[in-house]
Amino acid sequence: MIFFELIQNIALLVALAAVFQVIISRAGKRALTHTALIGFLFGAVGVFGMMSPIQYAPGIILDGRSIILAVAGLIGGPLVALISVFITGAYRIWLGGVGTLVGIAVVIASAGMGVLFHYIRKRSRNYLGALPLLGFGFLVHIVMLAIFMLLPDQIGLKIINEAGLIMLVFYPTATMLVCLLFQDYEAKEKARNDLEYLAYYDTLTGLPNRLLLIEKLNQSLSTCKQSGHESALIIFNLDRFKTLNNARGYFTGDILLRAVADRLSTVLETGDILARLSVDEFAILVQRTEKYSKIIASHAQGLADKIHIALKFPFHVGSDEISITSSLGIALFPQNSDDTIGDVLRRVNTAMHRAKKNGGNQSIVIDQSMTNMAEHCFQIERELRKAILDGELKLYLQSKVNASGIIVGAEALVRWQHSERGLIPPVSFIPIAEETDLIVDIGVWVLTEVCKIIALDGIVGRSIKLSVNISPRHFRQPGFVTSVRRILANTGADASCLIFEITEGLMIDNVSDVVAKMIELTSLGIHFSIDDFGTGYSSLTYLKRLPIHELKIDKTFVQDAPTDSDDAALIESILAIAKHMKLDVVAEGVETHEQVAFLKARAEMFYQGYLFGKPEPSHIWLKRLS
Questions:
Q1: Distance from the first to the final alpha carbon of the chain
Q2: Is residue 309 in a domain?
Q3: Which domain covers residue 275, as residue numbers?
Q4: Whole-model pTM?
Q5: Which segments of 124-249 does DSSP mark as H helices, in order?
Q6: Where is the GGDEF domain (predicted)?
Q7: Is 380 inside a domain boundary?
Q8: Are residues 31 and 133 in the same domain?
């Protein structure tokens, strides 16, 4: 009978320990609070074990508290052990009886031995294998049985005779299993933490990266709109940094970037957030509580001046004395209630590029005087509107191949055959179209042309997938899904041959609507790909919610990956994310065999770039495919 009761008690404790894992995984991560919670829960589990004990004799109970307390000490360390000992010991005193002192001794001894092995475990990099843990459990319960010998009237000897063998078989095993359970949890938690770190922090400087800055900017923009205050964003990069890299190598460049990050950190004021956005590009989110733009502009300009002064003094890298300057753009926000993150970033980047174009080593606050570019954009917009109606848009396709170089699909690209200026690349008109509803008209035209190709007899049944870039503005249109359904029905195209490429910027606003539309389109058979992954603004939390099938590594990372440790690290991080989320990967901008070798050595993926084919008119691409 005692055998089954002991097994029941142990099973209860192991089950409670599993539930405990779920609780602590959802608890706050502040160190002291988290430790106290763990100690409390270990103590609570020990108390639960004593609530259903084996009553061996009046005042003498047998339970599995020694298992829990030993694990508390080993996993949690001294503070966790102390809290759990206090809770469990207090309850044992409250139960009373002739075995109270012995029970308290078991509590203290089990936790104490756990703490001892806690430090042994630390030397083993926080992991002990099954056999050491089994030995630990055996040692704890040998000591426990020895303590039982202190019970009056030789009761301890009777317990050992009747249940000692059972305890030495099952108690150490249970101790080992619970420890392995928690070690597995710790390993998974560490992996998760290493991944929300790769996602949010720059590995070279330790500063927040673009993703984290965008989240903070989003919060600041929302707060400012509610409070009526203004804030500012400063974006700057180092002038002629590429020249330094070419002259002294990437190792020297990395040392300099770390030194710059350290020096810039000294000019910040309370509330400011310094982030590294790309190789030599940094940003500072300036957060104050003033309502007037003149005051916040003064704060931002003052901070910009401090940056120039801080960078003025030479940096000593090895035997080199390096002097650098920077070009800064400053944008105040919000300008109005409709101001978005995209608007702020566009303004501040315009200002920074103006500063660089003007010779560098200066700061520019974006203002209404910058009208020349706006006039140019207006002219392009007007001509583009007419071009769409006159049929001047042309569809180009660029092949996507597998590891064997076999074409598995293509990306659809649009060109503008201008009546006077000839063939105009998309970089000259797509950004302007993005700012108006023209991008919707272009998107509908491209999708229709692609669907016509998918429905051709020579394509049907060939497992060829064509990718279409979907603008955030187009995607957010209320009738977007209906429009896609109509195009598919009119052309007879197989939706499973379509891949919609979206940018990370799509996830900035109204994520729920984005998710709902993506799920509806996925149900039709359409796949989704994140284009230029790693250069955008989204949180991995958003990506987790989206029905994504593919990540496209931006060409800026691919091109220098074989020789640039930063780009190599970024690619490896993206591949780790893709593997974790079970996503396909496409490398864009592949131009050399060295790049292919670098990528092939790290993961299986698809390739797109000039090495495998330039963008070409759709009819020529189809002819070559056939």
A1: 79
A2: yes
A3: 210-370
A4: 0.47
A5: 130-148, 155-159, 165-197, 210-227, 241-248
A6: 229-368
A7: no
A8: yes
